[in-house]
Design goal:
- By secondary structure, the chain is an alpha/beta fold.
- It has 7 helices and 9 strands.
- The two termini are 32 Å apart.
């Protein structure tokens, strides 16, 4: 009986944390940026915040960066005082882990403009949100409530040209919320590569 109890405790510890829920407060978190400085969600209280799970090795991520889609959206929302945080939750033991210096170079080469890029080596932030794919997107309102979670857009299998005409769920959620309207599509199924925890 004692061994069974220990086995159950070990199993529960290995399970990912429950995913965050649209309509409820977003999980609090803190993680180092590319220079090692701690960045917390609490730092941006009173602002809209977009979270983007990113992995430079993922073909889906590459499509959104190579077409300029993701960098353009990052720059667009920055003009509206929206904070964009890119988060890489790849484990250092994964073959797809990108060290901070390489991540910074890749982002610069792509013309990316997140407010900060966080390195979530232990996967705590990713698991708290239930991030499953790269990209996996979240929008948090100024009160700290999660108002959107899911895919970047409605074109999972898109060419570079089709990506430009996709319905962007993140933009739509921000536009509606900032206009004082309810978010019409608040949750979608994310697509992309699995997060390499």
């Amino acid at each position: 009986m004692h061994r069974l109890a220990l086995a159950l405790v070990a199993l529960c510890a290995a399970l990912p944390a429950a995913a965050s829920t649209v309509g409820l407060p977003a999980p609090a978190f803190s993680a180092p940026d590319l220079k090692g400085k701690a960045v917390s969600l609490a730092d941006f209280k009173g602002k809209y915040v977009v979270l983007e799970w990113v992995n430079p090795e993922c073909p889906y991520v590459k499509r959104h960066y190579n077409t300029g889609n993701m960098p353009a959206l990052q720059k667009e929302v920055a003009t509206k005082d929206v904070v964009w945080l890119a988060i890489n939750s790849s484990s250092p033991t994964s073959g797809e882990f990108t060290p901070p210096e390489q991540m910074a170079k890749w982002l610069a080469d792509k013309g990316a403009a997140p407010r900060a890029t966080l390195i979530d080596k232990d996967g705590k932030v990713g698991r708290a949100f239930g991030a499953r794919t790269t990209p996996h997107m979240y929008v948090i309102d100024p009160q700290g409530k999660l108002i959107y979670a899911g895919a970047i857009d409605d074109k999972r299998w898109a060419s570079a040209e089709e990506t430009k005409s996709a319905r962007n769920y993140v933009r739509a959620a921000l536009d509606e919320a900032m206009a004082g309207k309810p978010v019409s599509v608040s949750a979608t199924s994310p697509y992309g590569c699995s997060v390499k925890y």
